[in-house]
Every structure is written in structure tokens, then in C-alpha cells.
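Fold this sequence, please.
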Amino acid sequence: AATDIREFSYKNGTQSEVRAALLGKEWNLIAPFAAKLNKSAVDTFLQDVTGLRVSRFVDDVAASGFTSPTYTFNSYEREGEGSTVNETMTIGKEDNGSFYVRSTLNPSTAQIEGFQVQRLSLDLAELISTEVTTFNLSEVNSAVVSFLDGDQQRDVTLTRGEDGSYSGLESLTIEGFTLETGAKRIDEWWQALSDSDPDQFLT
């Protein structure tokens, strides 16, 4: 089942291998580079992989094209610091709109409809998270804000107390700035960071 997979890799034709692992509750890209993945997109992808349906079984293995596969998917089992392949699914050549497929857990050669293979051939960018930040607002009590004051960079450490007030604002001496208006603006900025909407705090 898709929910049982904790680490996987896939290779689409001649493209670089993509590998990802579930660390805690978050999916993270391991190769070809490191990045946070969109959990919803990964869950949908794994459901598509585990939900493949065979249209028919075939005996003509010679025509399958498994030696130069169209697509390969591996799921892994964790063993200490390393991992070993649990299952490999290989998709071979196309044949009249269908593709040959086999799995190491079921060595029989079968065919699946082409539209199922198309769902697996997504661009890596579709899996990568677009969030600007990944923290939980309720867990953040301080932050360092850097900004330009004229031609000088200013760094201000803001600390939020249990009563919701901020320390650090008193060090600001920008024209038109007061602790009251500053605290309101910081609340908006703080929430914008949590919501990962850069348009709210970059203006």
C-alpha cells in the first residue's frame, strides 16, 4: 500500500534517478539534490504507483524491453543507517498503447494501459514543495529581522512574550515608527511567515 512506503526511487527513461525518504512526517528529496517535497503530491504519486492495474498477462518476455526500461520504481526497507530494496517495478516497451510491466514480488510479465504510465511520468518540479518557510508559528518565539535603513543594513532580534508583546522593537528609530504600529505590523509579518505567503511580508 502507498501508506507503507517510507523511501522510494524512480527513473524515467534516461533522466536522473529521483530518490526520496519520509523523515518524520515530511517527505524529503535525497537525489538528484536535496529539497523538501509536497506531501500531498507525493501521496498522490505513490497511490498512482501502487494502484496500477494489469490489463492482461503475457508470455512474450523477449519483446518486453526490460533490458532498456521506460520506467523503474524501487521501494526500500530501512535497516539501521542504510536501506535495501524491498521491491522493484520495471516498465518496458510500449505495445499498441500498452506497456509491459513486471515486479520482483510477482515475476509474471503483464501489460498495463498507457495512461497509467503517463501518470507516473511527472516532472520532478511537481513534487517539490513551494513553501517559503516550514515552521509552525506556535513554536516560534523569536526571530531576527534584517532590513535596509537608508543605505545601512539593520538586524533586529524580536522576541515574543507569553502576553503577545515584543521585545526588540524599542531599538528601532525609524521615522513614523511607534511601538503600537510596529507590533501590529510584526504580527502581520509573523503570521505571513507561518502562512508561507511571501507577498504579505516582502512589501
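Residues 179-195 form the longest helix (17 residues). The helical segments are 39-50, 114-120, 179-195, 198-201.
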